[in-house]
Design brief:
The chain is mainly beta. The chain has three helices and ten strands.
């Protein structure tokens, strides 16, 4: 028995209509699935209607199912936070709530993209003998599995390429927290700096 899935998707432009400058388009895709198939790969973010059809050669039946689909977890966060993942306020670098954290950081840390937050990243100076070391603790959104969070350090802000992870001591790295300590002591004559970098996979 073969099962045929007819995937119909109306883009945002279609829903806005010609009066709003949308060009209007309907994307139709027919995918033939075998009995063992358990899912469908959607070609875009948005609302879809799936027609599930089955036939044994003599009888045929079908059912229509509506669903929302997203290409990735961050796309889903954008749509849920800003009602649309294509809105200017939803881009990775946008800071809709003006709290100094761009959306990709808000998502990675698990903070709100629409309400101002004090940064949840903490930094400390840890004494060790006669030396002092910088330590930074970063809370992580355990659901944000499509981003990487990296701590980097440098001895000068004048050379952008000097930021590096080399030698840093990772004290914790779980699904909910990243804690990293510098391996070079900070002194009055030799300052140290640390930063957090978030990248989407």
């Amino acid at each position: 028995m073969d099962a045929v899935t007819d995937v119909t998707h109306s883009s945002d432009q279609r829903r806005r209509g010609a009066g709003d400058g949308g060009c209007g388009r309907v994307l139709r895709e027919t995918v033939v699935l075998w009995q063992s198939a358990t899912g469908v790969t959607f070609p875009a973010n948005g609302s879809f209607t799936l027609r599930l059809q089955a036939s044994d050669g003599s009888a045929q039946t079908f059912a229509d199912v509506s669903t929302l689909a997203y290409l990735g977890l961050f796309d889903q966060w954008q749509a849920q936070t800003f009602s649309s993942n294509s809105a200017p306020a939803a881009t990775q670098a946008a800071d809709f709530d003006h709290d100094g954290l761009p959306n990709l950081f808000e998502y990675a840390l698990g903070t709100s993209g629409t309400a101002q937050n004090l940064t949840s990243i903490t930094n400390e100076v840890i004494p060790s003998g006669n030396d002092k070391y910088l330590r930074i603790t970063v809370p992580k959104n355990s659901a944000a599995t499509d981003v990487t969070i990296v701590v980097e350090a440098t001895g000068t802000l004048a050379i952008p390429s000097s930021w590096s992870t080399t030698g840093l001591v990772i004290l914790q790295n779980t699904s909910t927290v990243l804690q990293v300590q510098d391996n070079v002591a900070a002194t009055q004559n030799f300052p140290r700096f640390m930063r957090v970098r978030v990248s989407k996979l």
